[in-house]
Write a structure and sequence with these properties.
1 helix, globular, alpha+beta, 31% strand
Length: 67
């Protein structure tokens, strides 16, 4: 499924008063599965999500856990 279609399906499930205010975004980097997703409310970022995995075989996807 294309991102634009998936995004539309997600946004239409938001409460009606939030549908024009809340938005979801995503970005992928290179040839791996890691990326970045974020939510905005009235154009301001309110949440950031890393889509990398600790166990990924790709070095660019491995999350660094602070010690």
């Amino acid at each position: 499924m294309q991102w634009s279609k998936l995004r539309s399906l997600i946004v239409e499930r938001f409460a009606e008063p939030l549908q024009k205010r809340l938005d979801i975004h995503g970005a992928a980097y290179g040839n791996c599965s890691c990326g970045h997703a974020w939510l905005t409310l009235d154009g301001e970022v309110i949440a950031n999500f890393c889509t990398g995995r600790i166990t990924s075989p790709m070095p660019c996807c491995r999350l660094k856990i602070p010690s």
